[in-house]
Amino acid sequence: MAKSSARPRTTYRCSECGWETGKWVGRCGECQAWGSVAEAGAAQGRTSAGPVTSPAVPIGQVATEDSRATTSGVPELDRVLGGGLVPGAAVLLAGEPGVGKSTLLLEVAAKTARGGARTLYVTGEESASQVRMRADRTGGVHDELFLAAETDLGAVLSHIDQVKPALLVVDSVQTIGASDVDGVPGGVTQVKEVAAALIRVAKTRNIATVLVGHVTKDGSIAGPRVLEHLVDVVLHFEGERSSRLRMVRAVKNRFGPVDEVGCFDLSADGIVAVTDPAGLFVARHHEPVPGTCVAVTLEGRRPILAEVQALVTPSAAERPRRTTSGVDGARVAMTVAVLSQRARIRLHNHDVFLSTVGGAKIAEPAGDLAAAIAIASAWKDKEIPTDVVAIGELGLAGELRRVRDLPQRLAEAARLGFRSAIVPNDSGRAGGSVREVQGMQVVAVPDIDSALRVLDLSKTDATPLIRPNESSPQRPRLGLVQEPGGRSV
């Protein structure tokens, strides 16, 4: 008996990541995207050769004049972008609602227009009169800045044909819809089509394009993940609602580094670039206070001083509290355990509260030493000199490990008037070796117990290398240096 021909097997593929499965599911098992799994089309035949848009040439003969970055008019944004906006580049700027994305891009559009480059600002979230009111308040009105309120992709493309801009700002890509594509604006299919069409126009006409993107509850960019692959630069706009400080961080950048951070001051009068944000994260004490220590962290490649404050109080609870703000709670718990085991500072019956000043967030391990010194100072109720910084990663064995870019951190601390620093010592010698670096007294120690002895915070008897001196000057008053014409904070 002849065998019956087998029915072709139906497969389903995720439009986001390409994951395949034998049955339909509502959520992709690979990238966890909802509604992206659909039946895969039938296999097509081989694609035949077709016409080329331009012949292939040796790479040395490719012209680069049209792809040189031009300034956006905002130095801090240029720092993150790697020099400025590149013609034909697509930039995706994402951030939480109300963080200041529209204000920043209106400032960029206005300054680009003042530089002689025609700019088109397309808003799909606000009316034209609302944007004009903000421009009046921030001084962003210019004849070369064109404004359009549209939510249809075809209308946006018509505006581009008429205005012929050098810079295009679309606020936001989730509000623009294509009439010939199924789905509602903001959906996966619509966002992909709208973004692809705008990027295609940007590449063919050499228009620098900035797209505003929404974020989800967990802070990731809303919409299909392929959107991040289509664009050239992905920027995250961050900031606490209780603080005026805003930061732009590069997540992806084809034209520059991805470890740069730009700082801004957002107020009712607009947004101003902050070129020196060091003073925002260090409190100004008139006299030394127990439980405080200054760390030097890196935001991108920029060293920033951040003060860590600790409070240690006796606890009547069976499980003492470990409360943190601005620092990683897991690292603080590890630091408390290391202090208890390696430095004989018993905190098993004490509540420990640790916080940073000014809303700073210390995410890198270089702040471990400052946190440990602050906790030890609060536990012993003994102040440390106000002109001392601590830099180093703390290991579980109590050892101190070196961190990257230590000379740059020391130079920044010396520039702001700090005279002493405690850093890890790679030689492993006991005690502390003292040397002069960047005009500072730098004490290199191998472990946490040696670091505490330097400041007379250890339980062992030893002569401290750094003593509080009443005649020494207090911590310098730190201010902000902003771009010309900006206001001080």
UniProtKB/TrEMBL annotation:
<keyword id="KW-0862">Zinc</keyword>
<keyword id="KW-0378">Hydrolase</keyword>
<keyword id="KW-0067">ATP-binding</keyword>
<keyword id="KW-0547">Nucleotide-binding</keyword>
<feature type="region of interest" description="Disordered">
    <location>
        <begin position="463"/>
        <end position="489"/>
    </location>
</feature>
<feature type="region of interest" description="Lon-protease-like">
    <location>
        <begin position="351"/>
        <end position="489"/>
    </location>
</feature>
<dbReference type="Pfam" id="PF13481">
    <property type="entry name" value="AAA_25"/>
</dbReference>
<feature type="short sequence motif" description="RadA KNRFG motif">
    <location>
        <begin position="252"/>
        <end position="256"/>
    </location>
</feature>
<keyword id="KW-0863">Zinc-finger</keyword>
<comment type="similarity">
    <text>Belongs to the RecA family. RadA subfamily.</text>
</comment>
<dbReference type="InterPro" id="IPR003593">
    <property type="entry name" value="AAA+_ATPase"/>
</dbReference>
<dbReference type="InterPro" id="IPR004504">
    <property type="entry name" value="DNA_repair_RadA"/>
</dbReference>
<comment type="function">
    <text>Plays a role in repairing double-strand DNA breaks, probably involving stabilizing or processing branched DNA or blocked replication forks.</text>
</comment>
<keyword id="KW-0479">Metal-binding</keyword>
<dbReference type="InterPro" id="IPR041166">
    <property type="entry name" value="Rubredoxin_2"/>
</dbReference>
<keyword id="KW-0346">Stress response</keyword>
<dbReference type="Pfam" id="PF18073">
    <property type="entry name" value="Zn_ribbon_LapB"/>
</dbReference>
<dbReference type="Pfam" id="PF13541">
    <property type="entry name" value="ChlI"/>
</dbReference>
<feature type="binding site">
    <location>
        <begin position="95"/>
        <end position="102"/>
    </location>
    <ligand>
        <name>ATP</name>
    </ligand>
</feature>
<keyword id="KW-0238">DNA-binding</keyword>
<dbReference type="InterPro" id="IPR014721">
    <property type="entry name" value="Ribsml_uS5_D2-typ_fold_subgr"/>
</dbReference>
<comment type="function">
    <text>DNA-dependent ATPase involved in processing of recombination intermediates, plays a role in repairing DNA breaks. Stimulates the branch migration of RecA-mediated strand transfer reactions, allowing the 3' invading strand to extend heteroduplex DNA faster. Binds ssDNA in the presence of ADP but not other nucleotides, has ATPase activity that is stimulated by ssDNA and various branched DNA structures, but inhibited by SSB. Does not have RecA's homology-searching function.</text>
</comment>
<dbReference type="InterPro" id="IPR020568">
    <property type="entry name" value="Ribosomal_Su5_D2-typ_SF"/>
</dbReference>
<keyword id="KW-0227">DNA damage</keyword>
<keyword id="KW-0234">DNA repair</keyword>
<feature type="domain" description="RecA family profile 1">
    <location>
        <begin position="66"/>
        <end position="215"/>
    </location>
</feature>
<dbReference type="InterPro" id="IPR020588">
    <property type="entry name" value="RecA_ATP-bd"/>
</dbReference>
<protein>
    <recommendedName>
        <fullName>DNA repair protein RadA</fullName>
    </recommendedName>
</protein>
<dbReference type="InterPro" id="IPR027417">
    <property type="entry name" value="P-loop_NTPase"/>
</dbReference>
